[in-house]
Amino acid sequence: MNRKFIAKSNFVLRRVLNTEENLDILKEFIEVILNLEIKEAKINPYLEKLEKHLPAEENFGIADLRIKTTENEERNIGIQIIDGEHVLTKMLLYYVQIHGNQLEYDEDREIAKTNTINILDFVLNKDLDYHSRMVVAEDTMTNIINDYLEIHILQLPKFKLENSKDMTFKQAWISYLKGENTEEAIKKSQKIKKLDELLERYWKEEIME
User: Which of 151, 192, 152 has the alpha carbon at shortest distance from 169?
Assistant: First the structure.
């Protein structure tokens, strides 16, 4: 993984990205990973408000957003980097946290589908592609559940890029996260370039607790 992420990865990226000024970075990342176009995006303050009160093992996650696509579909989006043990449990707990926090909002809005994006710096399942999508098995009853649940898993070590000179935006993002072909990735996307500069500044200026 990119060495700029190694220490307190979720904490650092949450500090860097959860601002209105840097919402454009999150929007591009979500668009390329979920293959959709975002018309509106808003950062939800729920995790930030509770951060100091959560036990360490629950204090995870990079971002919690409410988006509206160009097709006017609303979704909740959560992004986290996962390491250590009990990975599947962490994924499910994170989904529950992001989906359930809709009950805390003061706004009058409908409960919407939740997508979580889970970034792994190890191979969880050798039979899955580097980007896999987890939903409940399809049948009449579980289709109702799938209206609310969709978990994405990015296994960075499984990502292989044959031609760095002709990478897509998605390949650029995965390459940057993985820490490979980062110069080409930065050239491909202005949002990746902006994130890289923000991280450089963070590590020069920030004092970790």
Answer: 192
